Amino acid sequence: MSNAKSWLGLGMSLYFWGLMDLTTTVLSGTPTPPGKLEAFLSDKPQSHSRTKRSWVWNQFFVLEEYTGTDPLYVGKLHSDMDRGDGSIKYILSGEGAGVVFTIDDTTGDIHAIQRLDREERAQYTLRAQALDRRTGRPMEPESEFIIKIQDINDNEPKFLDGPYVATVPEMSPVGTSVIQVTATDADDPTYGNSARVMYSILQGQPYFSVDSKTGVIRTALMNMDREAKEYYEVIIQAKDMGGQLGGLAGTTTVNITLSDVNDNPPRFPQKHYQMNVLESAPVSSTVGRVFAKDLDEGINAEMKYTIVDGDGADAFDINTDPNFQVGIITVKKVI
Ligand SMILES: *[C@@H]1O[C@H](CO)[C@@H](O)[C@H](O)[C@H]1NC(C)=O
């Protein structure tokens, strides 16, 4: 008997057809195959394209979300004691054996008979046995292997925290950070670009911009004036495949409000007011009211009226009505 043994059970080997440029990282904790591996050539026709074939001796890879009608070929178990006469019986056990994966007990071919979803389950640990079909005795020690589900880009980025609400002071300098939005993508972040997200702004320009990598939204226009436009509905898109054509996309809404800063002085709508008062009017009686408008809001629009100059400045008083922001002119002394 050949002494070319796979580490994976004495002489029992697994192989599969490289579907794509696979990463051939061996799982940590698994032994590195010894130098002398027996490679089995498949009877499948070789492609003339320059696809790189990777041989991995303890794991198979199979693409998720296969939609064909035939069972999906995963790979092959093979004992080097198998002379092809059907005297060896291959047995599969472990996670998904018989339900998700079946084996042809004569050829060792493994197929998936269910649609696989990597985001539901990324790998299966199975055990392989080769028995003497006549006696039922094991020909080899049982060995363990893994079927890894290979990611395809079947999940779009999602903004789990959206929609967002944010506030930024009006008149902020261009580039002021408003809020950071984050999209998550359920695809495999360690393989390809299916989970590599780029942000862009679909609505909200030229007032706001988004950092394509970080999702930080910033002000993009000078002198944004709350008194001119207070509310903005900004729509941010996250697209995987690094934002490239063919990537999947998701969006979120960010409602941004400009908060007030005190950038408007109070203004009297009239330059002159005419008021009359009887000379008999008692002290503290009201002469009239004046009202100045302030476009700001809250404390920035609160006013205090004072008499700064003029004839009879000592004859009249002005008080501020805090509820209506009105100045009330009263008689201060007998006229
Ligand atoms: C954002 O603003 C729109 C339009 O005013 C409103 O219908 C929506 O409810 C707001 N969303 C949030 C999260 O506040």
TrEMBL record:
Molecular function in Gene Ontology: beta-catenin binding; cadherin binding; calcium ion binding
Q: Which domain of life is it from?
A: Eukaryota
Instruction: Please give the InterPro entries that the UniProt record associates with this protein.
Output: Cadherin, Cadherin-like_dom, Cadherin-like_sf, Cadherin_CS
The entry's localization annotation reads:
Cell membrane
Q: Where is the Cadherin domain?
A: 79-159, 160-268, 269-335
Main localization (coarse)? membrane
Q: What is this protein called?
A: Cadherin domain-containing protein
Report the source organism: Balaenoptera physalus
